[in-house]
Amino acid sequence: MTTVIRSALPLPLLRTGKVREVYEAGPDQLLLVASDRISAFDVVMDEAIPEKGRVLTQVSAFWFGKLADVFPSHFISANAGEIIQRLPALAPHRDTIRGRTMLVRRTTPVPFECVVRGYITGSAWAEYRKHGTLAGEALRAGMVESDRLEPPLFSPATKAETGHDENVTFETMAKALGAREATALRDASFRIYEAGRAHAAARGIIIADTKFEFGRDADGTLRLIDEVLTPDSSRFWPADRYAPGRGQPSFDKQPLRDYLAGLKADGRWNGEAPPPTLPEDVLATTSARYVDAYQRLTGHPLPEDG
Fold first, then answer.
1. Homologous superfamily of 1-106 in CATH?
2. Where in the chain is the domain with CATH 3.30.200.20?
């Protein structure tokens, strides 16, 4: 097993994100490499989470295939052998790319994250508890933590490569993008979320909330891009342990969040960079949660090459 903090491939590097490197793979394609870096509270940790990059890539590949009839995506392949056939210069780097690399169509990204909330938790719960609102808009009174939102809420957010994303209203997004584009993004987000949560429910998993990203390709087609319904972009809860009125156990980076929340609560970390040092048990437990999420969602062990 190769742990990758940061890739260095013989392709033009387009950009480096919180956990991914994006390379140019020709005039109309990109190569996304998911490292084992991890972020929490919008801060990138110094340590790697074993298997995380492979889980993110292979969960996304699973969903892109399953949702192909629901909405078009940028996905081409996440199989290392197929990618090397298309990009032979990567052959010496097979150990680095296998399982964690995705070849995709190039798009122009929409400058908003499209968040769908099926339950009130996380930053939405924090705001509601204080003000009874989400992004400044009133929600129904009397909800408790982890209550189901029916129908789900569309809650866009601004993107931030560093620092914190900001929840905004649909009207804010519509003003920036135009009503037609904003409505298309909202409708697509609901369709993808409904299809995803139906599959997850059959596997005993609640998708409490998730964020989607979209882009338009050279032909103007709106496509689902980046990652989709992964432990990094979603909150997965075990359905048989769900109980409103409290926080829920989850199949994602919750062990890391819990550890960091404890440091914040007693003043040992201020929630900003630089991050604290993570103990080995937190790294191992978080890695196990990621792998468990993949296996529960797909019904298969994590593949080596995709």
1. Phosphorylase Kinase; domain 1 (3.30.200.20)
2. 1-106
For all residues of the chain together, what is the average pLDDT?
94
On the question of pLDDT at 160 being above 70, the answer is no
Beta-strand runs (E) in the chain: 13-16, 20-24, 29-34, 39-40, 43-44, 75-77, 101-105, 108-109, 112-119, 133-134, 137-138, 148-154, 157-158, 166-167, 205-216, 222-225, 234-238
Q: What kind and span of H or E run contains 83?
A: helix 80-86
What is the three-state SS of 14-73? EEECCCEEEEECCCCEEEEEECCCCEECCEECCCCCCCHHHHHHHHHHHHHHHCCCCCCE
Which segment of 143-147, 159-163, 212-216, 223-227 scores lowest on mean pLDDT? 159-163
200: enclosing H helix or E strand:
helix 179-202
Proportion of the chain above pLDDT 90, given as a percent = 88
Looking only at Cα atoms, what is the longest distance across the chain?
A: 59
Protein fold of 109-252: D-amino Acid Aminotransferase; Chain A, domain 1 (3.30.470)
**Residue from 117, 111, 228, 115 nearest 181 by CA:** 111
User: What is the pTM (predicted TM-score) of this model?
Assistant: 0.93
Please measure the distance between the N-terminal and C-terminal CA atoms of the chain and give it in whole angstroms.
14
Q: What percent of the chain has pLDDT over 70?
A: 98
The residue type at 281: D
Tell me the Cα Rg of the chain. Answer: 19
pLDDT beyond 60 at 260: yes
